[in-house]
Amino acid sequence: MQRRLYTGRDPRRAHSIEELRAMAARRVPNFCFEYVEGGSEEEASLRRNREVFSEIAFKPRSLVDVSKRDIGITLFGRRSAAPFMIGPTGFSGLLAHEGDIALASAAAAAGIPFILSNASTTSLERVIERAGGRVWMQVYMYRTRDFVATLAQRAQNAGVEALVVTTDSAIYGKREWDLRNYARPLKLDLRNTLDVLAHPRWMMDVLWPHGMPRFANLGDLLPPGQDSVRGAASALAKELDPSLSWEDIRWLRDRWPGLLIIKGLMHPDDAARAVSLGADGIVLSNHGGRQLDSSVSAMDVLPDVVDAVKGRLAVMLDGGFRRGGDIVKAMALGADAVLVGRATTYGLAAGGRAGADRAIEILMTEVDRVVGLLGCSSIGALDRQYVQWMLRELRRATATAGEAALETEWQ
Ligand SMILES: Cc1cc2nc3c(=O)[nH]c(=O)nc-3n(C[C@H](O)[C@H](O)[C@H](O)COP(=O)(O)O)c2cc1C
C-alpha cells in the first residue's frame, strides 16, 4: 500500500527520511534535487545500495530488559552519541544558505562527527569557527599535490581531527542528469532556468543577495576568479588524477600527523593494504552510486572486510542508509560507524538547519527503537547473531540441495 507522506513545509513534522526527501523535492529546483538524488549511468549501484538492506533480516532476542539503552559508540578514543556521522557532500550551499555550517552545527549539537567536503561552499576555517564539534575534512588527490599539502596544513591549523581521502573519484562518473540539465557547462538550459524561477523561496534563501555559491576551499587551486561553480568545473575536471596510487596515500600519510581515513575502498585486499600503510580507518563506499555503476554495495563487502582487517583499523561504510534499522544492520555486521550522505542532505534541502536536525533526530530515535526491539541494550553489544542474510541463506540451501541431488544422480 502506498503511504501518504506529509505535504507541509515544517521539517520538524516529518517522520521519516523519505518524508524529508519529498519535502526537499518540492523546496529546491529540479537541477539541485537531481544533483543530490542522482547516480551514474543506469543507477544500478544506487539501487543496490538500498536493495541490500532488504536482504538482511533481524533475528531478535526475547525477554531481555531493555529499559536502559545506549546507542553511543567510542570512535578513535572519543565518545560519539550515535553510531553514524554526516559524510562529505559537496555544494551544500546550493541546497540552503551556508548549508555546510547548517550540517556541521546539527552534527555538533547531536554529538556526532561531521565530514566537510573539500568542494564545500564555506571554508573549513569558517565551518569550524561557526559550528564547533568534531570536524573531519575530505580531500581529493588533485594533480596539484602542493594544493593537497596546503589544504592538509590548513586542516591541521584549524584543528581538524581526521583527513578523509576519497579514492573512488580519480575519474569522474558518468552522471547523465547533470549533462542533461545544462545547455553548456554549468549554464542551465531553458527548462531548468524557468524551474528555478518557480522556486522563489529557494532563490531568496540561496541566491539572494550573495548570488550563486562559490567553492570556498579551492581558491588556491583554481585560476584567479574561477572559484565560481561554473568557472571551477573545467579546472577541477582537469585536476582529477587517474594516476592515483598507493604511493600517493603513503605521501599523504607522511605529511598528515592526524587520523587518516581512506574513503572509497571496496575490496578486502585493499583494506588490508590500508592497514599496512598506516591508515587509521577506511570508509567502504561506492560514492552513493555516483561513480562506478553496477558496483556491489558497501554492505555486501562489509563482513569480508571486517574479517580481513581484524580490528587493526576502523571500518566505516556508507551508501543507502535511510533508516535507523539500516545502521543497526551494519553495526551488527561489524562496522565501527556509518556515514550518511543523502539522509541529512535531504533534511538540509527540506528546511536548512531545522531539516538537518530533524534528519539526525529521526535516525537516532529509529536506531534506539530498533536496538530495543532486538532485545539488546547497547549498540556495542550487537553482533552477527542478530542478523541473517536472506538470499545468501537461500542460495546456500539451494546449492547444498543441488549438490546433494547431483551426488544421488551419480551414485
Ligand atoms: C550531493 C552529493 C555530493 C557528494 N559530494 C562528495 C564529495 O564532495 N566528496 C566525497 O568524498 N563524497 C561525496 N559524495 C558521496 C558521499 O560522501 C557518500 O559516499 C554517499 O552520499 C553515501 O551514500 P548515501 O547518499 O546513499 O548515504 C557526495 C554525495 C552526494 C549525494
Automatic annotation (TrEMBL):
Domain of life of the source: Bacteria
UniProtKB keywords: Flavoprotein, FMN, Oxidoreductase
Record: active site: H287 (proton acceptor)
GO terms for cellular component: plasma membrane
CC cofactor: FMN
Domain FMN hydroxy acid dehydrogenase stretches: 9-392
UniProt binding sites for glyoxylate: Y35, Y140, R175, K263, H287, R290
GO biological process entries: aerobic respiration
Gene3D superfamilies: Aldolase class I (3.20.20.70)
Pfam family, one: FMN_dh
Binding site for FMN: P88, T89, G90, S117, Q138, T166, S285, D318, G319, G320, F321, R322, G341, R342
GO terms, molecular function: FMN binding; L-lactate dehydrogenase (NAD+) activity
SUPFAM superfamilies: FMN-linked oxidoreductases
Keyword presence, Zinc-finger: no
Stated family: Belongs to the FMN-dependent alpha-hydroxy acid dehydrogenase family.
Name this protein carries in UniProt: Dehydrogenase
